[in-house]
């Protein structure tokens, strides 16, 4: 069908378009909710934001049904969706409090509740910051291991055992993918980039525990 073929050919453009649209709908939701004080109308844009995420999942499913395989496209969308319904909720609440604080200051009224103020104060505690970063790192490490296990099972270069590639990282800097742990070039590239990001995340996340800041007032 033309529709399915169109989805296959423009899958990345559609995904990026949905991500941009979801971000715009989220901003409009916050502006209408706190600047114009229109609760019902703002709820419509929050619904559109959620709809964009649902459409991303449906798009990934259609592409999978047509191609019959899990590719980079499905993996990227899965990461975005998992983030949206896990850490994304916490980040949204932080953004919500940030908007209420500054819009309230601009309008000369206090939009923050006592619970909002309490959470903002708690968020400044170095112990809380360190604990949140450790939890994020544990989650990141778990996802990293699970996804790479799936990569290895589906795309692994089984000419050697997995331990061989972990002990000898010479493949990491090679342009030739023959000796890489994965038979697919795109998967190897994703793994390389993710390993760098994971290493940086490990340093940053644990720095809050090893070198905690003084408590902010």
Describe this entry's structure for a reader:
The protein has 217 residues and is mainly alpha-helical. The chain has helices at 2-9, 11-34, 39-67, 72-84, 87-107, 114-122, 126-155, 162-167, 185-210. It contains 9 helices and no strands. Helix 3 runs antiparallel to helix 4 and helix 7 runs antiparallel to helix 9. The model has no long low-confidence stretch (mean pLDDT 84).
Question: Short summary of the structure?
Answer:
With 217 residues, this protein is mainly alpha-helical.
Topology:
Blueprint: H1 2-9, H2 11-34, H3 39-67, H4 72-84, H5 87-107, H6 114-122, H7 126-155, H8 162-167, H9 185-210
Helix pairs in contact: 2-3, 3-4, 7-9
Note the main attributes of this structure:
217 residues, mainly alpha, 3 domains, 9 helices
Globally, the shape reads: flat
Structurally, the number of domains stands at: 3
Following the backbone from N to C, one meets helices and strands in this order, namely HHHHHHHHH
Helical element count?
A: 9
Mean pLDDT, all residues? 84
Tell me what portion of residues adopts beta-strand conformation.
Answer: under 5%
**Structural class assignment:** mainly alpha
- Characterize the main sheet: none
Rg value: 22 Å
Residue stretches low in confidence (pLDDT < 50, at least 5 long) are none
């Amino acid at each position: 069908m033309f529709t399915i073929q169109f989805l296959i050919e423009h899958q990345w453009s559609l995904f990026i378009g949905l991500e941009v649209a979801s971000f715009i709908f989220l901003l409009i939701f916050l502006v209408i909710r706190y600047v114009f004080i229109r609760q019902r109308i703002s709820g419509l844009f929050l619904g559109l934001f959620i709809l964009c995420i649902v459409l991303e999942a449906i798009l990934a499913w259609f592409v999978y049904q047509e191609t019959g395989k899990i590719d980079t496209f499905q993996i990227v969308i899965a990461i975005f969706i998992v983030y949206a319904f896990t850490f994304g909720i916490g980040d949204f609440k932080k953004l919500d409090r940030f908007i209420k604080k500054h819009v309230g200051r601009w309008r000369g009224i206090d939009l923050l509740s006592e619970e909002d103020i309490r959470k903002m104060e708690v968020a400044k505690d170095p112990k809380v910051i360190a604990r949140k970063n450790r939890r994020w790192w544990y989650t990141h490490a778990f996802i990293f291991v699970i996804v790479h296990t799936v990569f290895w099972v589906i795309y692994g270069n089984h000419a050697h055992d997995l331990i061989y590639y972990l002990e000898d990282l010479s493949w990491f800097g090679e342009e030739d993918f023959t000796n890489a742990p994965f038979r697919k070039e795109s998967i190897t590239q994703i793994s390389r980039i993710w390993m760098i990001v994971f290493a940086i995340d490990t340093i940053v996340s644990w720095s809050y525990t090893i070198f905690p800041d003084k408590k902010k007032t």
